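Re: weekly structure request thread

Next one in the queue (243 aa):
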Amino acid sequence: MPEITKNQLKHIRLLKQKKYRQEFGEFLIEGEKNIEELLKSNFKINALYATSDWNYTNCKEEVTLVTTKQLSQISNLSSPNKVLALVKLPINEYNESILKNDLTLVLDSINDPGNLGTIIRTADWFGVKNIICSTDSVDCYNPKVVQTTKGSLFNVTVHYQELSTILANTSNKIYGAALDGEEINKDFSPQKPSILLMGSESHGISEEIENFVTDKILIKQNGKAESLNVAIATSILLYQFTS
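Done, posted below.
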């Protein structure tokens, strides 16, 4: 059984940081569910490490067998889950034709990895193929984001763009979630194609980007909670927009 070298250990650990993911052009994926979805995708696997109890009989990729202890040395998880892969970063080229889809999800300054991962997974559930993030949003290849998507990262393309440029040059309706927006109900029928714009966890949509919003919307409130988590709010609104 091969031992992981010190250089390999160092390299893998560096991939926890965005600057090294960009420098080396690869990112980490862990866990059986994520790897199962990875193997179905077109993403290129650079290396695959697994313990002997991982069922890899149908895997066509070369697998390096490691001990549980070795896997724990390179894992980002508190309880490593049998398998880890190094994957080549895809090149997601933005094209304005994306905005011709019925719905485009746009995220302004989403900073929490768990929130972005959940939003990507939810977008996949509702059939949204593209998400456009502001350049200051958390990296979608952050290990926690990847883990939270449960494989949906392979079905949804995430673009990082200057939102002001994109929003200033579209004729689409731009629906922005805001606490001073108009309550929507089950009869809500958005114009197509349209953009759903969600703001940061703590500050909402930034003042600069808010200027491009054509329709401020609000989820109907029946209780006393001050606000909704951005991932939960996005889930509710995606249901409204795609029903």
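The chain has nine helices and ten strands. Residues 92 and 106 are 15 Å apart (CA to CA).
Next request, please.
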